[in-house]
Specification:
The chain is of the alpha+beta class and about 270 residues long. It has helices at about 25-35, 45-50, 55-65, 85-95, 105-115, 140-145, 160-165, 170-180, 195-205, 250-265, and strands at about 70-75, 80, 115-125, 125-135, 155, 210-215, 220-225, 235-245. The strands form two sheets. A six-stranded antiparallel sheet has the order 5-4-3-8-7-6, sandwiched between helices. The chain has a two-stranded antiparallel ribbon with strand order 1-2. The N and C termini lie far apart (about 40 Å).
Length: about 270
């Protein structure tokens, strides 16, 4: 019997040939999705290979995005995201923040209580989208925060806040989302199979919080809890990030578990 959680990653997006959809628009969006903090600049040939198009077609799409203000070129003729590309993301972050108007005060109190960086995130596809992040500045904290701020997407499978978001889904939604995840090796303890991820999420739901034990990156531990959802458009979760050198998993849970769950309930 075929597993409900297939582990073979899909390396390239496949676009459905449906008459009611625009392939040109889809490829334009795919081009924009290539850019990341890890690779902010692309040569035309690299973009063509990444999206699976010919260079002339890729050049036409890229030039269109430049003329619309979503891409720009540097002195080496590499393409980069332009300022306008961030406008839709800022708009959605602002809209989702309105669904949790008390979050800022609660998160600041949680940061003061724990002494560590705290975050509020929303489920966005197979990622957690940071809506708010309040930084602490103790030893090792800057490294543990991975320079990730508001608007950054982090994978659901290797972060405490992502797994907490998954606990808010019903069984059918959860199975479908886990099946669509592409597992990649992020940290020394990254989950290896989707079945293992499903088991972790089930356990997290039972105890009311999720943990990350150097799964996102070496030296990073975190704990997170789902926010009750009545009236909200998508799942939200609250998390605390700590340097692994400061706490074992057990110490992190003992010290911050109740505080994180309490903050999530108040938002």
């Amino acid at each position: 019997m075929e597993s409900a959680y297939p582990d073979r990653p899909r390396r390239r997006i496949k676009l459905d040939a449906q008459p009611q959809t625009s392939r040109s628009l889809a490829y334009g969006v795919r081009l924009l999705a290539c850019f990341s903090a890890e690779k902010p600049a692309w040569q035309l040939s690299e973009l063509a290979d990444e999206v699976g198009l010919g260079r002339s077609t890729t050049h036409r799409y890229a030039k269109t995005l430049v003329s619309l203000g979503y891409l720009e070129q540097d002195k080496q003729s590499r393409y980069r995201l332009a300022r306008r590309a961030g406008e839709p993301g800022r708009a959605i972050v602002g809209t989702l923040r309105l669904e949790a108007p008390a979050a800022r005060t609660i998160l600041e109190d949680l940061r003061d209580q724990t002494g560590h960086t705290v975050s509020l995130a929303a489920l966005s596809g197979t990622h957690a989208l940071y809506l708010q992040r309040f930084y602490a500045h103790g030893p090792g904290q800057f490294e543990a925060d991975l320079q990730q701020g508001v608007g950054v997407h982090v994978p659901v499978y290797c972060t405490a806040i992502g797994k907490a978001l998954l606990t808010s889904l019903n069984e059918t939604e959860q199975r479908a989302l886990i099946a669509s995840v592409t597992l990649e090796h992020e940290g020394p303890n990254t989950v290896r199979t989707k079945r293992e991820l499903a088991e972790q999420v089930a356990y997290s739901r039972e105890r009311g919080f999720a943990i990350c034990d150097e799964e996102q990156d070496i030296g990073v531990r975190s704990i997170a809890a789902a926010v009750p959802q009545p009236g909200r458009s998508r799942p939200l979760a609250v998390g605390v990030t700590v340097p692994a050198e400061g706490y074992s998993v057990e110490e992190m849970v003992e010290r911050f578990g109740e505080a994180v769950r309490g903050a999530a309930k108040r938002i």
